[in-house]
């Protein structure tokens, strides 16, 4: 007799009694009160199940975090996150009191929490010397809560022992919300937020093909980082379904993975697209030869994907960060983020060892910005770069702690992956596979790559992946089936393959750097740059004190800079306002020093006439603050960058071809050549 039949026989009468009682209530007190009572009963049932069954508690926490339910439902009187954390903590305590669950806890379950604790310890000196104690206190409080979160989740993962159900709990909210964003974009015309789970940041951006959807978050870039963490586990689930030949599972896992990819596309985030591509490549490499062979035949699809509107053309806008194009023609978000990065690096240079204190950058940047000579930052108060954030706030010591955390997790994921190389690829008995270990590696790499463009926020999804990697490591280390001769040989082959891949990666990176640097040096144009700084001087009309305060009224200088810029006929000259310093910088580029000076002076000379023609000279006059020397600069345009990218891609293809020949020779001779 099936388990379902047994459950129905044992509890059918109880369920029928509840149904009759609800029916009576519907006729006596009304349907609204009945539905409320029904909801309360269901809620109590879920809470009871979560307390008694660790898998339920873990699934609720995972789904809530990857859906950012606590952020969407922030208006509730009780924090969703704190309520679930308390529920999961209670479930962990109840599980520890029961021999059945306590026996499942494997040695080493605490390693992810210890790595996080090591990072937090490195923050202590910077916290003691913080230049913004209030923000640092808040940041450390959140970090301690994250430590408790990792401990509880690690215990629940051990006691649950159902990793594939946990992966389903990751995929379901990510895929469902991605579907909502697609419905918003293509069906309802972006007029519905679906309760706050499908929001739109904006419909503006360089070469975007859709509105920038941010799901349950206020920023599509951070939502993209959520999706990157889930994408490799979706691929692992697809692989498991194919090997099991279970078409219902394949329909779910394939549909969820496709929905996640669609969600990544609808973020229209360049950093997300690049990091997602890197995560997929890393997963393919680490998941084993069978998957690599399959991926080889699907590789041409990647070229077709780049041709889609909003992908290839949007990625090419990143060339503006290193090209000689004038700043006014570049993507404003790229320019402002680059300037904030300059400020963060200036903060780090001023406080290299311990930084200014965790969580302090937003408040100290106004002090350091004038000292770094950075350009305008707009309303951005975060570094938008995790590594610059750590360096500026915690210094070299804090960065060392973060390196311990990330490298430690990669080592755990590597050990789990090579150990699981001897497991069955169809996950017999619910066991983990090499593809899931590879997903852990890819998720960490993808998160780290995406964090080049993002600061550390919504960290619990990343920390959950760390806890999941720790669980996979303990399972792989303690599974006796993997110690048999056959699996052990597979593990040894996987270690050699990883060593070979590491050597190839280093060789490819060195060769690509040499090729790219050589082409840039040969193809870059020699140009000359002349600069001058202007400011606004109050005429005395109106309220002189109010007029002189241009630094605090951040819109004034950019408005005048735009007018002066529009008055210049040459697009090789830019006028960039910096309200923090109170100046407008005129930058002219020419093929000779004389040409650069002539273009700069033309803008400076025409500036008073430009603001007069716009009737803006009643309150301000334009005066010159300083005139800079002419400097030399190697200019790189978009065409040059495209040539460099194509040549680098060709070099990578050549290296991979040679490596394939080496591997075939290895198999023929039975000797490990590299």
TrEMBL record:
<feature type="transmembrane region" description="Helical">
    <location>
        <begin position="78"/>
        <end position="97"/>
    </location>
</feature>
<dbReference type="Pfam" id="PF04932">
    <property type="entry name" value="Wzy_C"/>
</dbReference>
<feature type="transmembrane region" description="Helical">
    <location>
        <begin position="295"/>
        <end position="312"/>
    </location>
</feature>
<dbReference type="InterPro" id="IPR007016">
    <property type="entry name" value="O-antigen_ligase-rel_domated"/>
</dbReference>
<feature type="transmembrane region" description="Helical">
    <location>
        <begin position="250"/>
        <end position="266"/>
    </location>
</feature>
<feature type="transmembrane region" description="Helical">
    <location>
        <begin position="36"/>
        <end position="58"/>
    </location>
</feature>
<feature type="transmembrane region" description="Helical">
    <location>
        <begin position="640"/>
        <end position="659"/>
    </location>
</feature>
<keyword id="KW-0812">Transmembrane</keyword>
<feature type="domain" description="O-antigen ligase-related">
    <location>
        <begin position="256"/>
        <end position="402"/>
    </location>
</feature>
<feature type="transmembrane region" description="Helical">
    <location>
        <begin position="12"/>
        <end position="29"/>
    </location>
</feature>
<feature type="transmembrane region" description="Helical">
    <location>
        <begin position="164"/>
        <end position="183"/>
    </location>
</feature>
<dbReference type="InterPro" id="IPR051533">
    <property type="entry name" value="WaaL-like"/>
</dbReference>
<keyword id="KW-1133">Transmembrane helix</keyword>
<feature type="transmembrane region" description="Helical">
    <location>
        <begin position="435"/>
        <end position="454"/>
    </location>
</feature>
<keyword id="KW-0472">Membrane</keyword>
<protein>
    <submittedName>
        <fullName>O-antigen polymerase</fullName>
    </submittedName>
</protein>
<feature type="transmembrane region" description="Helical">
    <location>
        <begin position="395"/>
        <end position="414"/>
    </location>
</feature>
<feature type="transmembrane region" description="Helical">
    <location>
        <begin position="272"/>
        <end position="288"/>
    </location>
</feature>
<feature type="transmembrane region" description="Helical">
    <location>
        <begin position="109"/>
        <end position="128"/>
    </location>
</feature>
<feature type="transmembrane region" description="Helical">
    <location>
        <begin position="460"/>
        <end position="476"/>
    </location>
</feature>
<dbReference type="GO" id="GO:0016020">
    <property type="term" value="C:membrane"/>
</dbReference>
<feature type="transmembrane region" description="Helical">
    <location>
        <begin position="497"/>
        <end position="524"/>
    </location>
</feature>
């Amino acid at each position: 007799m099936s388990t379902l039949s047994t459950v129905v026989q044992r509890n059918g009468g109880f369920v029928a009694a509840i149904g009759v009682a609800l029916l009576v209530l519907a006729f006596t007190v009304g349907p609204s009160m009945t539905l409320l009572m029904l909801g309360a009963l269901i809620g109590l049932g879920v809470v009871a199940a979560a307390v008694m069954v660790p898998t339920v508690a873990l699934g609720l926490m995972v789904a809530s975090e990857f859906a950012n339910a606590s952020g969407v439902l922030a208006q509730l009187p009780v924090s969703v996150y704190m309520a679930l954390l308390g529920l999961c903590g209670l479930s962990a305590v109840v599980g520890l009191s029961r021999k059945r669950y306590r026996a499942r806890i494997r040695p080493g379950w605490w390693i992810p929490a210890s790595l996080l604790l090591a990072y937090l310890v490195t923050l202590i000196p910077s916290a003691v010397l913080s230049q913004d104690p209030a923000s640092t206190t808040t940041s450390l409080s959140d970090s301690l809560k994250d430590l408790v979160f990792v401990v509880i989740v690690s215990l629940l993962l051990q006691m649950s022992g159902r990793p594939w159900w946990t992966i389903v709990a990751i995929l379901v909210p990510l895929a469902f919300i991605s579907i909502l964003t697609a419905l918003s974009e293509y069906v309802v015309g972006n007029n519905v937020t679906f309760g706050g789970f499908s929001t739109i940041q904006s419909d503006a951006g360089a070469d975007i093909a859709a509105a920038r959807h941010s799901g349950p978050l206020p920023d599509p870039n951070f939502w993209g980082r959520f999706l990157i963490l889930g994408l490799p586990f979706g691929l692992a689930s697809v692989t498991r379904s194919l090997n099991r030949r279970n078409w219902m599972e394949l329909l779910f896992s394939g549909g969820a993975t496709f929905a996640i990819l669609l969600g990544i596309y609808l973020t229209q985030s360049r950093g997300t697209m690049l990091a997602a591509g890197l995560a997929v490549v890393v997963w393919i490499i680490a998941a084993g030869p069978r998957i690599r062979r399959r991926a080889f035949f699907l590789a041409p699809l990647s070229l077709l994907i780049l041709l889609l509107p909003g992908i290839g053309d949007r990625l090419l806008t990143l060339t503006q960060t290193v090209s000689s194009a004038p700043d006014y023609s570049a993507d404003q978000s790229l320019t402002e983020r680059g300037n904030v990065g300059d400020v963060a690096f200036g903060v780090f240079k001023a406080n290299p060892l311990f930084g200014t204190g965790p969580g302090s950058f937003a408040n100290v940047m106004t002090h350091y910005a004038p000292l770094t000579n950075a350009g305008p930052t707009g309303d951005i108060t975060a570094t938008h770069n995790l590594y610059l954030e750590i360096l500026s706030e915690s210094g070299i010591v804090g960065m060392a702690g973060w390196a311990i955390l990330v490298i430690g997790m990669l080592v755990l994921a590597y050990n789990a992956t090579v150990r699981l190389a001897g497991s069955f690829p169809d996950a017999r008995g619910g066991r983990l596979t090499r593809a899931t270990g590879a997903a852990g590696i890819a998720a960490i790499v993808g998160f780290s790559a995406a964090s080049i463009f993002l600061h550390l926020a919504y960290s619990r999804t990343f920390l959950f992946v760390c806890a999941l990697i720790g669980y996979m490591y303990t399972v792989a280390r303690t599974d006796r089936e993997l110690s048999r001769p056959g699996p052990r040989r597979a593990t040894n082959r996987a270690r050699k393959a990883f060593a070979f891949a590491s050597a190839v990666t280093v060789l490819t990176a060195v060769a690509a750097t040499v090729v790219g640097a050589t082409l840039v040096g040969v193809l870059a144009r020699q140009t000359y740059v002349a600069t001058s700084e202007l400011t606004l001087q109050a005429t005395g009309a109106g309220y002189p004190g109010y007029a002189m305060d241009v630094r605090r009224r951040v819109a004034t200088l950019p408005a005048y800079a735009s007018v002066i810029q529009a008055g210049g006929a040459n697009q090789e000259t830019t006028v960039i306002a910096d309200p923090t310093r109170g100046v407008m910088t005129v930058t002219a580029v020419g093929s000779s020093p004389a040409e650069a000076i002539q273009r700069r002076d033309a803008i400076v000379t025409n500036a008073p006439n430009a603001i007069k023609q716009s009737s803006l000279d009643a309150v301000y006059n334009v005066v010159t603050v300083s005139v800079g020397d002419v400097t030399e600069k190697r200019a790189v345009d978009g065409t040059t960058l495209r040539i460099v990218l194509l040549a680098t891609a060709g070099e990578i293809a050549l290296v991979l071809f040679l490596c394939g020949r080496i591997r075939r020779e290895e198999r023929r001779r039975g000797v490990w050549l590299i």
